[in-house]
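User: Could you walk me through two proteins back to back? I'd like the raw sequence and the structure tokens for each, with a short line separating them so I can tell where one ends and the next begins.

Assistant: Of course. Protein one, sequence then structure:
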Amino acid sequence: MLARDSLLAGILRNPQKLGGLSLSQWDILIPQARRAGLVARLAWLAEAQGLSVSGRPGEYLEGARIVANRQNQAVRFEVDRIQAAFEGSDIPVVLLKGAAYVMSELPCSLGRTFSDIDLLVPAAHLATAEKILNFHGWAGGHHTPYDHRYYRKWMHEIPPLQHIRRMTVIDLHHAILPLTARIKSQPELLFAKAIALDGYPNLYVLAPTDMLLHSATHLFTEGEYNHSLRDLADLDALLRLFPARESGFWAELEERAAELNLTRPLYYALRYCNAILDTPVPAGPWKTWGPALPAFMDAMFGRALAPQHASCADTWSEMGRWLLYVRGHWLRMPLHLLIPHLFYKAFLAERNEEASKKENGA
């Protein structure tokens, strides 16, 4: 099934339909939303439409909304702790994705759930930033020597850091794309336009154009699509908000995409937001930034962006996601690094992880 045809995508396009669903439709919608990470978003959409969902579906949505609100509060608490950690340092710390949405009070933060907090610091300050976080309780987990080498030599982030008491996770980045990626971007340009976060001297969020471009880049280059419809819904919300708030936004967005060498991710974001969620997107230069075989990419992304639930699967769903997984790795690493890496992950990773846990007494 293509993502547009899923019940969940139809509800995201027209939330008023939440008021007229049968129990059998709820039995399809809630599992789809759970797999996509959008159950709490449905609760917020129903509330925004003035709809009252009764019975078990209403109870389920309310429970998800409560969990999302608690996570939202937890993110704010962790951001306070991050500011306290960097107080007095000269390191600019940029909040990315979900944490940035929450602290900027953007609509896409409503009903959003979190697994970690993403931070971006200049590469020159990466080692110091890691030491600061270590000192304040965020420590590396049980990673194999291979994993450490993989992250620190080739990737755009260090291994995840988990707080020793609160168990919250920080992903500390020094770029938005791996060092080995085929797409080359310049993170220093992001810091140049970053916006200071009120009341947090060390903390920033990306400029609106850059926030949108980063979200598009993450979704369309990573190769993992577990919560892809949620991420597409985030993009939809940003694409509706920013142009309404800032005149000239579309021209600035296209210009910035060219400057950051992120035209292809933006092309996919605009194409599939419009195709799946009816996001209003004007004509412009972006339409010339597509691949040589757009129909082939449509077939793959059309399936990968659907909820990963049996009700959305067809003959080609698994194949489409697998091809995009391979594409994601191909975009991240040249072949002479990619082939040994995939071999390691397929045949050696599990054995080495077990050995590492034993050595660390886990």
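----
Protein two, same layout:
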Amino acid sequence: MGALINLARETYGDRIPENCIAELSAHFPQIKAVIAQAPQDVQDRLEQLAARSGFDLFTLQALRAVYIASLRAVGAFSRLGYVGNITFLRQRGEIHFLPTLREDMTQFWQHYCLGELTIRDIAGNHFDCLEGDGANAIATLLSEAWA
């Protein structure tokens, strides 16, 4: 799926049109077969996912809304750079549905930071890096950066 998302980004740039994933899936026969069998309606997809995932439908609808709002906010962001130093805590882990997040975020902070950018790689992915021992490790990194 990551390769398909990357192909969509390479093909369409910053604005990926609706239904292009289904069209580009011809390059990925296994994904094309799954897409062909998947419900076309968002509500139907969420209901199927709720039946299999352990999440209720309301929670999945809320998570989807947050995800969409987050992507829209990122897409609309157009501020000038930050004049100052930044310590960027970059996740080591990957996320299958955002296959280039690590590279994208690195590029963003390199462009946005007009001071010194320090990159510190941390355990976990974008969503779980603050869980368990990761939280203590990040607290230590931040206290060092702010000392």
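Helices lie at 2-12, 20-24, 29-37, 42-53, 57-76, 101-112, 133-145.

Let me know if you want the two compared in more detail.
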